[in-house]
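Format is sequence with structure; example below:
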Amino acid sequence: MITRTGPGRLIRVKERMNGAMYREILSDNLLPSARALKMKRGWVFQHDNDPKHTARATKEWLRKKHFKVLEWPSQSPDLNPIENLWMELKVRVAQQQPQNITALEEI
């Protein structure tokens, strides 16, 4: 989660992510991140059109939890704010050249 007030928790995924894992990450981290960032009621969640994000089970989970989800146009990475964060992370990794996972996680 990234917001205008800062980032939420960064989660290290150790294996290939599927829909169930994505929902578990949301379940464990979405509300705690929103609370830590002192987000007010009525905020809107945005994710891209990755299949695990648009899966029926994920949509149902978000609906049951009463999350407002922004409809996102397909094939529009240029509009996605997370792409800026990924670029910043790539630059930092290239500059610092971590030699192990611990060093990478500290970036």
Observations:
- Helices lie at 19-36, 51-54, 56-64, 82-96, 101-105.
- The two ends are 17 Å apart (CA to CA).
